[in-house]
Q: What sequence folds into this?
């Protein structure tokens, strides 16, 4: 594969490391500015800011953009952002912005562009901003925002000053309708107010995943791109911004086209990475003009490196025996993921599949060669092909490798009558753009199929199956594979070699604002793959605390184990989220109050009260092995190919569980041994960026001896050497390092972590690993 080549100017300005800060009204630009000296001293080269454009007032995340033309006032406005940039620059730091091109807040009160569309209808100059199917239903845009049916809230509607209001919500009125009787006024608008539950089946605008509060934006339109990107491009041109993180490119109609336009608009001056979730060995499209991904692919490989494959399989067997049918039936990953896909495509994404069916039906009706395909057959074909897309979506080219003939055969099996199954061939050709024309509706179908596919994958895998199949929760992370959670050293080295060759400027991460569990929590859970029977014993010890069902008990206790200390206030919301996302007994939209009370009571009585990692005999002695995982993963990520990102507060021990933990404000804390490791690695990257950039080639170093697989080692540019301990509990059970040794490349090597120890290279004098890891389970060496 030959990837997009970095312009030479950008290669010279490649970040050495980024630090993600979550901005919000409680932590605005001024607070970030005050943190700059400390973060500069840590050794990063750039601050990565969460979205900075105008958002819904009070938003703690900023992804609900309301005005892409203004910097958010609650954070300090453009003046505050420019002041932060100046202070950062004075301390040698640049800024990277999180850019949200796919969606905006569907709030008429705060989103001026949407408000004008609702007032003026399809003739509004802003109508082209949004994917609205005006032909669906009665020709109006459905607004599923009412807390109950219209008849139940009608008496609370008020009209004044050209605005319709309901309990704080505001909706603009079409000109000349304000004096109409209420029922006539409602019917005269370009929108239809409706109960929020109708979004599932009746929605006629593209949204972000299944979140009706976020409306999709048509950045594929050059005018829309220009209007929504003018401010960010100005900040880039003025030198305020040095890099961009592109949020959810899979939601765009044409990601490659968007990225090409963005690269042209920035003049190639920006380090740009995309939040692209790759599945398995799926490659990032080589033609995309970006430096790489935001790093979820690296997260999977690093986590997998510290997961024992044999123990993970044993743990899955224990899980199936323990949870029985309380989880997702038989408890096997592939089947769980497929059932979740059917559930999401037929339930949560019913509006999206209906929109695709309408498009396909119109295309077929207009083409004599395609007529007489019943809408139900087209709908079935769309559903069956969508659930068989093995990755997030198709792109301009190569889609036939995703929507394969085998996938088509599987989809046809859902039809009782073979003659009706030919609808699958029609839908596949339309989705791939390989036949039947290339008109506006053909292109629209191709884009919407891919966009729906990405939403289905995200909601069915990340937000459903990950909560239904839980043998080893550390593997249930974005981009992960719970069915095969472990990665061999050879696989890891091959991955790093590909990054060094094809994507040397890509991002790498271990914790993000979206990770379900921070890296340190996952490290604790991953140790259980080395001792599945100990975990079974732990569960027996706490069996006296009754749980609503065994699947929930397993998930809650394992989450508590990863957290490390009982904390009902944090565990309760995290566990409740997990059962709602799983949708097996309760859900966000159809909650079961009795079940949820039982969950809360169980967490308070058990996982939120009992210190599992210290009070249990079975868990005794695991803390050193958890620490080895924490330090090993951190050092590997900081020195492997790519640009490492530290999520706020993760330079020290950081145990977090999804929202709200992951998006809490930055709060400096005391340093620990992890901090020392981070400072040493980042200092080396800052002092010698050439060792880690595009020229810093990656070389695997194999150990030799009876326990060699427990050591992973590599060099960068033949000048820096990383060595870490893998699966240290298994190593201890095998009798330790024994005579296992590592031959260092020729020369004198200095231990960066203590600045004192020296080692000599050469094949004739390999270093005993017992000596190398005498002080700590990791080593970072440099040739002075």
A:
């Amino acid at each position: 594969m030959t990837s997009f080549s970095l312009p030479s100017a950008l290669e010279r300005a490649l970040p050495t490391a980024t630090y993600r800060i979550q901005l919000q009204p409680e932590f605005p630009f001024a607070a970030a500015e005050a943190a700059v000296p400390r973060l500069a001293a840590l050794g990063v080269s750039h601050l990565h800011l969460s979205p900075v454009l105008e958002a819904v007032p009070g938003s703690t995340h900023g992804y609900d953009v309301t005005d892409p033309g203004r910097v958010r006032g609650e954070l300090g406005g453009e003046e505050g952002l420019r002041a932060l940039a100046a202070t950062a620059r004075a301390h040698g730091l640049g800024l990277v912005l999180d850019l949200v091109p796919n969606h905006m807040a569907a709030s008429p009160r705060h989103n001026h562009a949407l408000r004008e569309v609702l007032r003026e209808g399809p003739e509004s100059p802003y109508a082209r901003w949004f994917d609205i199917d005006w032909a669906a239903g009665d020709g109006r845009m459905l607004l599923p925002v009412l807390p109950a049916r219209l008849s139940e809230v009608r008496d609370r509607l008020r009209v004044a000053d050209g605005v319709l209001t309901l309990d704080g919500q505001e909706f603009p009125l079409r000109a000349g309708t304000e004096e109409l009787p209420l029922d006539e006024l409602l019917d005269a608008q370009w929108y239809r107010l409706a109960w929020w539950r109708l979004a599932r089946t009746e929605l006629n605008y593209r949204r972000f995943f299944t979140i009706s509060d976020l409306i999709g934006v048509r950045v594929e339109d050059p005018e829309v791109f220009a209007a929504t990107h003018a401010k960010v491009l100005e900040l880039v041109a003025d030198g305020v911004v040095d890099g961009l993180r592109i949020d959810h490119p899979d939601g765009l109609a044409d990601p490659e086209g968007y990225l090409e336009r963005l690269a042209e608009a920035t003049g190639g001056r920006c380090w740009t990475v995309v939040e692209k979730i790759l599945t398995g060995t799926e490659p990032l499209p080589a033609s995309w003009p970006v430096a790489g991904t935001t790093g979820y692919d690296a997260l999977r490989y690093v986590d997998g490196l510290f997961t024992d494959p044999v123990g993970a399989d044993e743990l899955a067997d224990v899980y199936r025996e323990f949870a029985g049918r309380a989880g997702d039936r038989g408890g096997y990953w592939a089947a769980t993921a497929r059932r979740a896909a059917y559930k999401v495509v037929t339930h949560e994404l019913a509006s999206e599949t209906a929109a695709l069916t309408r498009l396909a039906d119109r295309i077929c009706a207009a083409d004599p060669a395609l007529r007489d395909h019943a809408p139900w057959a087209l709908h079935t074909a769309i559903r069956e092909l969508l659930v068989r897309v093995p990755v997030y979506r198709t792109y301009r080219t190569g889609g036939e490798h995703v929507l394969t003939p085998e996938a088509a055969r599987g989809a046809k099996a859902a039809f009782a009558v073979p003659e009706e199954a030919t609808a699958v061939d029609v839908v596949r050709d339309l989705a791939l753009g390989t036949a039947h024309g290339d008109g506006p509706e053909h292109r629209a179908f191709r884009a919407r199929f891919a966009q729906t596919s990405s939403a289905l994958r995200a909601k069915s895998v990340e937000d459903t199956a990950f909560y239904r199949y839980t043998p080893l929760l550390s593997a249930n992370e974005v981009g992960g594979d719970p069915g095969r959670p472990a990665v061999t050293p050879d696989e890891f080295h091959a991955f790093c070699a590909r990054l060094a060759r094809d994507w040397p400027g890509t991002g790498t991460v271990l914790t993000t604002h979206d990770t379900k569990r921070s890296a340190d929590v996952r490290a604790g859970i991953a140790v259980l793959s080395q001792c599945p029977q100990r975990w079974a014993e732990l569960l027996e010890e706490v069996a006296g605390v009754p749980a609503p069902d065994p699947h929930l008990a397993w998930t809650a206790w394992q989450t508590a184990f990863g957290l490390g200390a009982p904390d009902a206030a944090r565990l309760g919301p995290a566990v409740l989220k997990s059962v709602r996302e799983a949708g097996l007994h309760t859900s966000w939209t159809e909650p079961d109050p009795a079940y949820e009370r039982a969950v809360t009571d169980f967490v308070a009585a058990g996982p939120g009260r009992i210190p599992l990692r210290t009070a249990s005999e079975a868990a005794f002695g695991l803390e050193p092995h958890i620490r080895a995982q924490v330090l090993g993963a951190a050092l590997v990520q900081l020195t492997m190919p790519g640009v490492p990102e530290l999520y706020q507060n993760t330079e020290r021990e950081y145990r977090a569980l999804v929202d709200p933990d992951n998006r809490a404000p930055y709060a400096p804390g005391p340093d620990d041994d992890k901090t020392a490791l981070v400072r040493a690695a980042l200092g080396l990257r800052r002092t010698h960026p050439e060792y880690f950039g595009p020229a810093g080639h990656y070389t695997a170093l194999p150990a030799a001896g009876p326990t060699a697989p427990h050591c992973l080692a590599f060099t960068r540019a033949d000048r820096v050497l990383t060595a870490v301990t893998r699966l240290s509990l298994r190593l201890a059970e095998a009798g330790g390092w024994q005579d296992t040794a590592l031959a260092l490349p020729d020369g004198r090597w200095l231990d960066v972590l203590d600045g004192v120890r020296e080692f000599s290279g050469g094949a004739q004098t390999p270093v005993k690993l017992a000596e190398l890891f005498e002080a700590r389970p990791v080593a970072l060496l440099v040739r002075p």
User: Anything to note?
Assistant: The mean pLDDT is 95.
